[in-house]
Amino acid sequence: MLSLSNTNFINSPVEKIFFENRFFYIKRDDLLHKDFSGNKARKFLYFLVNQFDNIHTVVSYGSNQSNAMYTLSVLAKMKNWKFIYFIDHISSFLSSQPIGNYKHSLDNNMKIFFDKTEYFKLKATNPKGYLFVDEGGAIQEASYGIKTLGAEVEEFARKNKLKNPKIFLPSGTGTTALFLQSCTKIPVFTSPCVGDSNYLKQEFFNLQNNEQLHPTILNPIKKYHFGKLYKNFYDMYKDLLNQTNIEFDLLYDPQGWEVVLSHPHIFDHETIYIHQGGIIGNESMLERYKRKWV
Ligand SMILES: *Cc1c(COP(=O)(O)O)cnc(C)c1O
């Protein structure tokens, strides 16, 4: 288990890879820590390293395979907090045979409740001792850990004398991309995986009024529905794995890499792609892909 005095884990390696005949740098936030990794670890770092004497329970809501849910379950375990999580539905398949983030969160003593609206009702009563974390960790406190990411990427760019570095990462809520651009002068590019670019822009404004500090949004090359299975996503996942030996996430990264590969004039050999973790979530995604195509 991660000890609180060990803050060493907040520094992930950067690797140079060769993919589709081009060089890229990968910031390996998937390797931050065995149980506490990816951008959710950066988002919740604030809660990990600070002392909260009055908190006894963390409460959140979202999908039943969310990476944020799993990372909160780890945080709660490390902090000795209870963890309550609201979902809207669960299939009888998943509830009889839990896998992926859902299984591992239950193993960490997550308590499931139904109906997201109950989350907001509970939050509105402002009960003592509860920490409320909105879906996906789209919260101001996330900026604390994402600043450490920004500082590490800047240090890498400086040490390696990159002349014109740029950062790419795919977005869900856009929280990671937004706070990253707020703390670094290196241009940050992203593409929306959950809604469209208007949705993402709105998310940016919810967290940061100053549009000058927003990342640049690039459109996906096709319209996709978040969480659906696409043959080209699975192919991209396998190509990445085969050519780079790195496993990427199946929800965000295939679409992200499509955008990167389709803009070679922007994403040259000084591109730093942020690997935001999510590998445990692949357990359930791979199961679904295999039932469909393998
Ligand atoms: C949560 C997550 C994202 C999206 O992060 P946002 O900050 O919500 O944009 C991207 N990739 C992975 C692997 C994630 O777990």
List keywords for this structure.
4-stranded parallel beta sheet; 10 strands; 16% strand; 11 helices; single chain; 294 residues; 6-stranded mixed beta sheet; binds pyridoxal-5'-phosphate; alpha/beta
Rounded mean pLDDT is 95
Radius of gyration: 19 Å
- Distance, first to last CA: 36 Å
Element pattern in H and E? EEHEHEHHEHEHEHEHEHHEH
**Largest sheet, described in full?**
6 strands, mixed
Gross geometry: globular
Question: Percent of residues in beta strands?
Answer: 15-25%
Helix content: 40-55%
Ligands bound to this protein structure: pyridoxal-5'-phosphate
How many β-strand stretches? 10
Instruction: Label the structural class.
Output: alpha/beta
**Count of separate DSSP helical elements:** 11
Q: Mind explaining what this structure looks like?
A:
- This protein has helices spanning 38-49, 67-79, 92-96, 100-107, 116-124, 142-159, 175-183, 197-207, 231-244, 253-261, 279-293, and strands at 14-19, 22-28, 57-61, 82-87, 110-114, 130-133, 166-168, 188-190, 216-217, 271-275.
- It has 294 residues and is α/β, with parallel strands linked by helices.
- The strands form 2 sheets. It has a 6-stranded mixed sheet, sandwiched between helices. Strands 5-4-3-6 form a 4-stranded parallel sheet, with helices on both faces.
- The longest helix has 18 residues, at 142-159.
- It is globular and about 50 Å long.
- The structure holds pyridoxal-5'-phosphate.
